[in-house]
């Protein structure tokens, strides 16, 4: 038998590696020179060793494969259906419909869509009778329909309920009771990421957000049945951390779900963040969205929905949409990202990050619950304040070029071409009456872009 190559080398402990590194530093302080402290409060070491896995016991499940998705905002029923069918022909495996009006004919919208396609429906209104129509369609067909209902997410985003607390929860109960939908409840963690929350905050707030629904269902004796809860997660540019974030989310949800004896599996829809997307050197957005989709896939997202590179400043267009879908097709059909099951498993670095993010998020979650829960902290403005503090720290790092967006805050082109702006890129504060301060999203590059556009 041929001797294994690895048997030819002596095992080296983590202590021996560190001693060698300290020797090579020639007097420089190991911690100051090589240890990086992230915004999440995690110390990143220069190397990781098998010994780092010794105390880690977080079994992370991973979907066998993932489905790519296309988001379609539906203003006209026929147009929405045509876009969906066209996208499916081009390789889309899931469709995410965002319905803006109650008048949209659900049956016509879903006409001729194959049963192999996962359909996610998100409405910008709260109407149980409309969801019942979708439930009836699911009953009479083989369509896999997921309804993304998130009344608390709407409160956090807008500062108001759809109607009021009592009415919203009453309608939610009716929606959850729809038996033929694949899912009827969702949690929008992406809001927190795009507002500047750290990954620990995103996970903890998402878990506390979900716990509000679980508590309500438990108190009202409403069963979620065997339908998975859906988490919508925005993925940023911190490649390995984002992989670990999704893996930690699965473990955290499984831990929480076990307390309520509900389905321990969740469905994760991951999509690139807006926070690091730019108008300056806008083609770099293609690189950013590609690596962010890679993080989503390796982290174990069930559905990956790409963001068109020009989504920040252009209205929906055929070229941007086609490129975003083709990026996913390349990752699956040419890079074979769906071949390896749980590819991040066993990576000393990623396993360590997963463990630390999960532990820190769980500790913060418990603190939120001890302080009265997610809704109480949202109404008091505590969560908004914490997110703003984190966003300010991240903005300072960006302004000082410690966080680099190529072509924007570093290596900027002096002859930069500003693209045609087709939609508001610097959201103005709207003076309106709200129950609480909404969580506001903001891109890192806005200040630089304003300066460049007025130069």
What does this structure look like?
There is one protein chain. The chain is of the alpha/beta class and 455 residues long. The protein has a domain at 67-350: Alpha-Beta Barrel (TIM Barrel). Helices cover 45% and strands 10% of the residues. The protein contains 16 helices and 10 strands. It has helices spanning 14-24, 30-34, 77-89, 106-109, 128-140, 151-158, 165-176, 190-195, 199-219, 239-260, 284-299, 318-334, 348-370, 374-380, 382-399, 446-453, and strands at residues 36-37, 43-44, 67-74, 94-99, 118-123, 144-147, 186-188, 230-235, 267-272, 303-305. The protein has an 8-stranded parallel beta sheet. The protein has a two-stranded antiparallel sheet with strand order 1-2. Helix 9 (199-219) packs across helix 13 (348-370) and helix 10 (239-260) crosses helix 13 (348-370). It is globular.
Query: What is the radius of gyration?
Result: 23 Å
Number of helices: 16
Give the terminus-to-terminus CA distance: 71 Å
Low-confidence stretches: none
Mean pLDDT: 93
Strand order of the largest sheet: 6-5-4-3-10-9-8-7
Tags for this model:
455 residues; alpha/beta; TIM Barrel; two-stranded antiparallel ribbon; 45% helix
Could you write a compact summary of the structure shown?
The chain is of the alpha/beta class. The chain has helices at residues 14-24, 30-34, 77-89, 106-109, 128-140, 151-158, 165-176, 190-195, 199-219, 239-260, 284-299, 318-334, 348-370, 374-380, 382-399, 446-453; strands spanning 36-37, 43-44, 67-74, 94-99, 118-123, 144-147, 186-188, 230-235, 267-272, 303-305. Helix 9 (199-219) packs parallel to helix 10 (239-260).
């Amino acid at each position: 038998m041929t001797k294994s190559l690895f048997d030819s080398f002596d095992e080296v402990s983590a202590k021996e590696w560190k001693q060698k590194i300290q020797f090579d530093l020639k007097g420089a302080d190991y911690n100051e020179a090589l240890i990086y402290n992230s915004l999440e409060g995690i110390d990143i070491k220069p190397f990781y060793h098998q010994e780092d896995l010794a105390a880690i016991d977080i079994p992370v499940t991973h979907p066998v494969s993932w489905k790519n998705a296309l988001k379609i905002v539906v203003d006209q029923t026929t147009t929405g259906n045509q876009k969906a069918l066209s996208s499916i022909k081009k390789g889309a495996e899931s469709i995410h419909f965002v319905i803006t009006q109650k008048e949209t004919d659900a049956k016509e919208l879903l006409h001729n869509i194959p049963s192999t396609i996962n359909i996610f429906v998100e409405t910008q209104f709260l109407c149980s009778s409309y969801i019942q129509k979708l439930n009836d369609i699911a009953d009479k067909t083989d369509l896999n329909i997921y309804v993304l209902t998130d009344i608390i997410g709407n409160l956090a985003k807008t500062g108001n309920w759809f109607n009021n607390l009592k009415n919203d929860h009453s309608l939610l109960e009716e929606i959850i009771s729809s038996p033929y939908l694949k899912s009827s409840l969702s949690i929008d963690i992406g809001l927190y990421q795009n507002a500047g929350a750290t990954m620990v905050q995103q996970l903890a707030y998402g878990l506390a957000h979900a716990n509000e629904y679980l508590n309500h269902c438990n108190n009202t004796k409403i069963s979620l049945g065997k339908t998975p809860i859906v988490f919508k997660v925005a993925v940023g540019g911190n490649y390995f951390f984002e992989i670990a974030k999704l893996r930690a989310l699965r473990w955290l949800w499984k831990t929480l779900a076990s307390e309520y004896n509900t389905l321990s599996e969740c469905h994760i829809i991951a999509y690139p963040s807006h926070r690091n997307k730019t108008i300056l050197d806008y083609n770099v957005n293609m690189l950013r969205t590609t690596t962010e989709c890679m993080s989503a896939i390796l982290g174990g997202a069930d559905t990956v929905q790409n963001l068109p590179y020009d989504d920040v400043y252009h209205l929906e267009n055929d070229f941007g949409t086609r490129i975003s879908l083709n990026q996913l097709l390349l990752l699956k059909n040419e890079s074979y990202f769906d071949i390896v099951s749980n590819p991040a498993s066993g990576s000393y670095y990623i396993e360590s990050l997963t463990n630390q993010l999960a532990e820190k998020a769980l500790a913060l979650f418990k603190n939120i619950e001890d302080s009265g829960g997610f809704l109480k902290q949202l109404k008091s403005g505590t969560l908004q304040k914490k997110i703003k503090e984190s966003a300010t720290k991240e903005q300072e790092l960006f302004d000082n070029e410690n966080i680099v967006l190529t072509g924007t805050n570093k290596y900027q082109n002096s002859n930069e071409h500003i693209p045609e702006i087709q939609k508001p890129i610097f959201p103005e504060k709207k003076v309106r009456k709200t129950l609480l301060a909404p969580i506001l999203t903001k891109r890192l590059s806005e200040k630089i872009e304003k300066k460049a556009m007025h130069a």
